[in-house]
Design a protein that fits this description.
The protein has a single domain, classed as Immunoglobulin-like, CATH 2.60.40. The protein is built from 1 helix and 8 strands, in the order βαβββββββ. The radius of gyration is 12 Å and the shape is globular. Strands 1, 2, 3, 7 and 8 form a 5-stranded mixed sheet that branches. With 88 residues, the chain is mainly β. Helices cover 15% and strands 53% of the residues.
Length: 88
């Protein structure tokens, strides 16, 4: 599985470590105006994400992951791909 997530380095390292422990890989990409982290949970998975009080809650099937995100971060899930973007 591949994961792409956009956020600050500290958060992305924590997220990467949490997901890696579950066998899911992620990638952080730096752009001029934003940082992104992306994670692909695979095709056809039942996955959703919600942000509550600065915590992103990702539910994939029976599994749940929670991690802090920076204020203003954009968090969304599309076709099993989690994306978190933080503007600089």
């Amino acid at each position: 599985m591949f994961i792409y997530f956009s956020c600050l380095l500290f958060v992305s390292m924590t997220l990467k470590q949490t997901l890696r422990e579950q066998g899911i890989d992620g990638r952080t990409v730096e752009y001029d105006d934003r940082t992104e982290f992306v994670a692909d949970f695979g095709p056809g998975v039942d996955a959703a994400v919600d942000v509550v009080d600065g915590t992103a809650i990702v539910v994939v099937g029976d599994d749940q992951y929670e991690f802090a995100v920076e204020a203003g971060a954009e968090v969304f899930m599309s076709n099993g791909v989690l994306t978190i973007e933080v503007s600089r």
